[in-house]
Design a protein that fits this description.
The protein starts with a helix and ends in a 16-residue tail after the last helix. It has 378 residues and is mainly alpha-helical. It has 3 domains: 95 residues, Serine Threonine Protein Phosphatase 5, Tetratricopeptide repeat, CATH 1.25.40; 85 residues, no CATH class; 107 residues, Alpha Horseshoe (Serine Threonine Protein Phosphatase 5, Tetratricopeptide repeat), CATH 1.25.40. The protein is 66% helix and 1% strand. Strands 1-2 form a two-stranded antiparallel ribbon.
Length: 378
């Protein structure tokens, strides 16, 4: 018993130690307990792993935000680009339509047809292009139906070489200009240019512009040479832009030519185009003394006849009003009254019956057929 008590109070050697004192832990209660400083890991390593995890998570979140922002920006840019392309496509179609209208007005029907067909290939629901394509095809068909008579080509006259001094030729051209002899002025100036193209080039250009301009207008307004007048005006444009008056005459001449192309083919279109010319240039004609005013009246009458035949009385009424407003001929009045009644649903027979009833009320007839007697005054 004494030995056991002694053993319990003695230190126990657990193994070799680098400490000079060794590692001796007093044992109590009969249990041998060993304590080592290296048995518990340092807490700093766990903190290090925690910070690494936080940093990695932050990078992942940052990458996700950047990726989402980039994808959203890309989608937005694509949508804006598509919208911009759609807007540009509409603008391009509108530009092609305006160019087609200009080609149509200039008589360039094939080019106008190609433009309108291109527009419809891109947008089949482009209503204005559908209408203009139909009108263009009608003009092309109308102008291609009759077999044109091939005109005898006018031989090109080679100017006789003039050996006079260029100054004398220039003086002759100026004299012709002052006399408004445009044919002589043009031929003299062209001869001068052929002899010496550099001689007073600016003055010659100016004189050619004036001569071609006035000769072209004179052909359109006086001699009925519509095509020749347009050709002269196009020659004048080689030397400078046309003034507003000359350009206006050129436009009226083109409208007149389009109206002729619809003559006896489409009376509604013929009436429309001659209606643009007749109020302003009623005496314009194309050499046959068939004036714009006469053509407009004739086209309207034929168009009204077509509408009446189709029982479109109210449309005929509108055209009749246009006809009477332009040409107040009393001969049109009975036709206008008849069309007005048809449009408003009144019957001529009913009006005649009303008139008969009114007459009978004013003058009653006796039943025995004898002549009425005057009622004596009291």
């Amino acid at each position: 018993m004494a030995d056991e008590t002694l053993n319990e109070t003695q230190p126990v050697q657990t193994g070799p130690s680098n400490s000079p004192l060794g590692e001796t832990i007093p044992m109590r209660g009969g249990d041998n307990t060993t304590s080592s400083p290296s048995a518990t890991p340092p807490p700093t390593r766990k903190r290090r792993f925690a910070w690494i995890g936080i940093v990695l998570l932050a990078w992942i979140l940052l990458f996700g935000v950047v990726a989402f922002t980039g994808k959203w920006g890309y989608d937005t840019a694509i949508a804006e680009r598509i919208a911009e392309q759609g807007t540009q496509a509409v603008v391009d179609l509108d530009t092609q339509y305006e160019l087609g209208i200009q080609n149509f007005a200039a008589g360039e029907y094939e080019l106008a047809r190609q433009r309108f067909e291109y527009i419809l290939s891109k947008d089949p629901n482009y209503a204005k292009a559908i209408e203009m394509l139909a009108r263009t095809l009608a003009v092309i068909q109308a102008t291609a139906t009759p077999t044109p008579i091939t005109p005898t080509p006018t031989p090109t006259l080679t100017p006789t070489p003039d050996l006079r001094a260029v100054e004398e030729i220039f003086t002759s051209a100026r004299t012709a200009m002052e006399a408004e002899d445009w044919d002589l002025a043009i031929s003299t100036l062209l001869g001068l240019r052929q002899k010496d193209a550099a001689y007073r080039a600016v003055d010659v250009d100016s004189m050619l512009y004036v001569a071609f301009r006035y000769r072209g207008v004179n052909k359109i307004l006086s001699t009925g040479e519509i095509e020749g007048g347009l050709l002269d005006l196009s020659q004048a444009e080689l030397f400078g832009p046309l003034d507003a008056e000359a350009q206006s005459y050129a436009n009226f001449a083109r409208l007149f030519g389009i109206g002729v192309s619809f003559w006896e083919v489409d009376w509604s279109q013929a009436a429309y185009y001659f209606g643009q010319v007749a109020p302003y240039l009623p005496n314009m004609h194309n050499g046959d003394n068939w004036y714009a005013s006469q053509r407009y009246t004739e086209a309207l009458q034929n168009y009204i006849d077509q509408l009446v035949a189709a029982e479109q009385y109210c449309e005929a009424q509108a055209q009749m009003e246009a006809l009477v407003a332009y040409n107040a001929d009393p001969l049109f009045e009975p036709t206008q009254v008849w069309i007005d009644n048809k449009c408003e649903g009144r019957d001529d027979d009913d009006e005649d019956e009303d008139d008969d009833e009114g007459d009978s009320a004013e003058t009653p007839q006796p039943s025995d057929g004898s002549a009425p007697t005057e009622t004596p005054s009291p």
